Amino acid sequence: MTAQDLLNLTSNDLIAKIQANDGLNNFAIERSKFEGWLKVELINILINNNLDALPEIDRIDVTFEKTAIELKTLNTSYKCHSVKKKTRPITKNIDGVITDIHKLNLNRKYKEKFVYFLVFPLPQTATRFWVNHISKIKTRVAEFKSVDFTFNNNIPGKIYCCKIYPKKKKFYDN
């Protein structure tokens, strides 16, 4: 499975669930993370696609067959309509994804390994700043794919799916 395959399998259903959930609007407005919700919904989507997805096996967020997925929700401080002005540790959030990449890279039990994360708010005006942050992740993964989405109150975000190198590489040390 490629990163694009996993994104194709999950993103349409996940975006529909995000847009149908009025409660998530408040998370976006408050810049609050919702990783637990993401884990439940992603597992449900995978099960509906005939994959035996399970939570918290081997201290990994989601597993099925010989596949491991670590999840994150990353909140940003970027100015965005309808979102409360708050400072969020973007660099620390990126470091959390890099830590997950390292953790999966060292794991030999799973053949295919991914980090799957949502970033919000992510307005177009923030692109030039965001590129610097996301490049730290791009250099550490074999595949890097994304798709845009909006909450149903039009707060923009992005879903990222990255496949980890199949062999141990030290890209996490950059």
Overview of this structure, please?
- This protein has 174 residues and is an alpha+beta fold.
- The protein has one domain.
- Helices cover 40% and strands 25% of the residues.
- It has five helices and six strands, in the order αααβββαβαββ.
- It has a six-stranded mixed beta sheet, sandwiched between helices.
- The radius of gyration is 15 Å and the shape is globular.
- The model has no long low-confidence stretch (mean pLDDT 93).
DSSP summary: helix tally: 5
Number of separate strands: 6
Number of domains: 1
Strand order in the sheet with the most strands: 1-2-3-4-6-5
- Major sheet characteristics: 6 strands, mixed
Poorly predicted ranges (pLDDT <50, ≥5 residues)? none
Large-scale geometry:
globular
Indicate the radius of gyration in whole angstroms.
15 Å
Please write the string of helix (H) and strand (E) elements: HHHEEEHEHEE
Classification by helices and strands? alpha+beta
Amount of beta strand: 15-25%
Q: How far is the N terminus from the C terminus?
A: 26 Å
Q: Averaging pLDDT over every residue, what do you get?
A: 93
In helices, the fraction of residues equals 40-55%
What does this entry show, briefly?
This protein has 174 residues and is α+β, with helices and mostly antiparallel strands.
Main traits of this protein?
174 residues; 6 strands; six-stranded mixed β-sheet; alpha+beta
Topology diagram in text:
Layout: H1 3-20, H2 22-30, H3 35-48, E1 54-57, E2 60-64, E3 67-75, H4 90-106, E4 112-120, H5 127-138, E5 143-150, E6 156-163
